[in-house]
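>> received
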Amino acid sequence: MKCPFCQHEETRVVDKRDIKNITRRRRECLKCKKRFTTYERIEVELKVIKKDGSRQDFDIGKVKKGIEKAIEKRQISSEQVEKIVSEIESEVYKISKGKEIESKKIGEIVMKKLKKLDKISYIRFASVYREFADIEDFKEELKNLIRLKNG
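>> returned
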């Protein structure tokens, strides 16, 4: 593993943690002594069934980009994003049994996690995912959120 600071090729693992299907390693460069974190994920060939019926490889990076767009300018840490992305990825693999999953189901999982994390981010994501046509769609979703909060 190359050090991202000095490019030295020798590092040592200071700490290792397994979080669901991700291994987090805290490393230290043997030359410059700076520390950095690496993440290892298990990759399984999983296909996503799109709305039009086409299939493509599951890419957790796309999910993360969608979440990052939704949380833009919100007080949400990168650790919270990593945690939610990890939870989504685990749930997707569990539900699909490592074979296929509909994009609709992935969107629902993301919305469920965002709703718990931050209501504004949830609305932002839902507006794109559900393709809100006008302000009435927003109002209806907001009513549902308020009803859940109060009920």
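>> Residues 18 and 24 are 6 Å apart (CA to CA).
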